[in-house]
C-alpha cells in the first residue's frame, strides 16, 4: 500500500456504519436518507477522486463516475452496489452496523453488514482509484465506476446506469462486478487457493403455486383442502429436482483445476469429457454449492394460507425461487414445474423472471487482464478459473452493452465468511481486504 492502511480501514469502517439497507421497489415512503448520507460521506472521504472524476446520480441514488483516460473507446467498468440486506440484530454477536474490529494484524476481522456484500469491493475500488489519482496516474482508456443502490431487491439502479451508457454509445471492453472469490477447499480434491471468476450467472425466477377452495369453518374441512393440494405439489417439486448436467464453464473449471487436484479425482477431472456425466450426478451429494453448479434449482421460500387458525384457506400459496442454469429458460422451467406437480387444480404463475446471462469468454485480452491482476496482487499460487455465478448480480444488465462481463470479488474468503453473506456475523479479514485494493490498482494500471 502506498497510503497508510490504517486510514483506509478507518474510511471503510465509517462507510460500513451507514445503514444503507435496500429500499423495496415501488414503496413511496422508503427512506433514502442513508443513501444520501453515504453519497456525501464518499465525497468527503475521497476528495482526490471527486476532483478528477465526473459523477452523476442516476435513478435517485445510484452513482456513476467517469474517469477520462487517454482514449474513450473500449472502457473498463468496475461495479459494486451500495445497498445491503436487512439484519436481525439479535442474531449477531456484535452491532451489525458498528464495524467493530476484532483481533490484530492481517487476521483481524471487521464485523459489519456489507463488509463483503458489497461495500468491501465498493470501498476497495474507491481506495484504488483515489490513490492512483493522487499519484497523478491517468488510465489508458476511460474507466467507469458503477454503483447501484438496489441490487439486493433486483431494483432498477444498475439498469438505469446501463441505459445512460447505452444512449451514449459506450461499449465496455471489460465489466467487473461482485461474484466469485479466492477460495480453498470449495472444489473436492483441490487444496490450492482458487480464484473462481464468474463468466455467467444463473437466471432468477419467482413462481407462485396456488390452490383454491371455497373456504369456511375449519371444523368441517373438505376431503381435499387447498392446503393439502399445495403441500402435495410442494413435495412433488422437492422430490423431483431438475436434471443435472455440466455446462461449458463448469466443464472448463474442472479442466483448469485438474493439474492442481490431488488423489483419485485428478484423473477424473482431467478426463472430464468422459467422466462429466457421472460427476454431474455425484456432485449434488457433496454439498449445496456443487449441486447448484450442475442443475437448475427450485426451492419453496414462502408459504401462505388462511388468516386464522380455525379458518379454511380460500387460497393456499407457495413461492418458489428458481435459479436457471445456462441452457434452461424461464419458459422451459415453468413447463417442467407444471409437469412435475401434475395437478391442474394448482395454478403455476411466473411472477417474475430473468433469463441466464450470456457466457463471457475465458480467453482473450479481457480475461488475461483479470488473470494478471489476480497473480500480481493476490498471489502467483492462486489458480484463476471460469465459474458459473450461483447468485444474481447487477452485472446481468451490463451484458446488453458488453460481451466481456465478469463476476469476481478479489478477497480470500473462508467457508465461514462465505456462509455469513446475507446471514449474521458478516465479516472480512483486514489483510484480505487490503489485498483486494491492490487487485483493483493492478487491474487499472494494466489497461
From TrEMBL:
<protein>
    <submittedName>
        <fullName>M20/M25/M40 family metallo-hydrolase</fullName>
    </submittedName>
</protein>
<keyword id="KW-0645">Protease</keyword>
<dbReference type="Pfam" id="PF07687">
    <property type="entry name" value="M20_dimer"/>
</dbReference>
<dbReference type="InterPro" id="IPR036264">
    <property type="entry name" value="Bact_exopeptidase_dim_dom"/>
</dbReference>
<dbReference type="InterPro" id="IPR011650">
    <property type="entry name" value="Peptidase_M20_dimer"/>
</dbReference>
<keyword id="KW-0862">Zinc</keyword>
<dbReference type="InterPro" id="IPR047177">
    <property type="entry name" value="Pept_M20A"/>
</dbReference>
<dbReference type="Pfam" id="PF01546">
    <property type="entry name" value="Peptidase_M20"/>
</dbReference>
<feature type="domain" description="Peptidase M20 dimerisation">
    <location>
        <begin position="199"/>
        <end position="344"/>
    </location>
</feature>
<keyword id="KW-0479">Metal-binding</keyword>
<dbReference type="InterPro" id="IPR002933">
    <property type="entry name" value="Peptidase_M20"/>
</dbReference>
<keyword id="KW-0378">Hydrolase</keyword>
<comment type="similarity">
    <text>Belongs to the peptidase M20A family.</text>
</comment>
